[in-house]
Amino acid sequence: MTIKHQITAGIGSIIVMVVINAIIGTVNGQKVNALVDQTAEESVPQAFLAADAKFQASQIQQFINDAALTQENGSINEAEKAYSLLLEDIASFEKMFKEEGDTKGLSEVSGIKQDAAELIDAGKEMQKAYGRSDSEGD
To answer: pLDDT band for position 81 (50/70/90)?
Structure first.
């Protein structure tokens, strides 16, 4: 093999590698764009909803405790508002899980809804118990 053929083969192999690299880069770029779109359209909004749901659950607990200790019905009303907001957040997750056919997610969301309803009911009972006497509330 002559020097001319060796140089041609060397340059040709470099050109082939550059072309392959460009093809791989394009494919990877498309995958990255798809992930960016999914993150922007699904993951980030769902993360904000999850954070708000967590906050609303905390608010329910806080207002229930406040209502039990102060005997003010306004705190129960605030707890019920937080409960309504929590249900709105949960409805978004239910919709997403239904669209994805995620039965496990739907089951978990259903459990959270039930727990939240029980928390509100227990809070009302706790307020009544503390209204009767501190020892009964404890």
So the answer is: very high
Using 50, 70 and 90 to split pLDDT, how confident is the model at 137? low
Structure tokens belonging to residue 92: 């978004």
Tell me which residue has tokens 């999850």. Answer: 50
Query: What pTM did the predictor assign?
Result: 0.70
Q: By the 8 A CB rule, do 73 and 58 touch?
A: no
Residue type, 24: I
| 133 Rama class: left (phi>0) / alpha (psi -120 to 50) / beta | beta
Q: Which is more confident, 130 or 108?
A: 108
Q: Residue by residue, what is the 3-state secondary structure of the chain? A: CCHHHHHHHHHHHHHHHHHHHHHHHHHHHHHHHHHHHHHHHHHHHHHHHHHHHHHHHHHHHHHHHHHHHHCCHHHHHHHHHHHHHHHHHHHHHHHHHHHHCCHHHHHHHHHHHHHHHHHHHHHHHHHHHHHHCHHHHC
Amino acid, single-letter form, for residue 59: Q
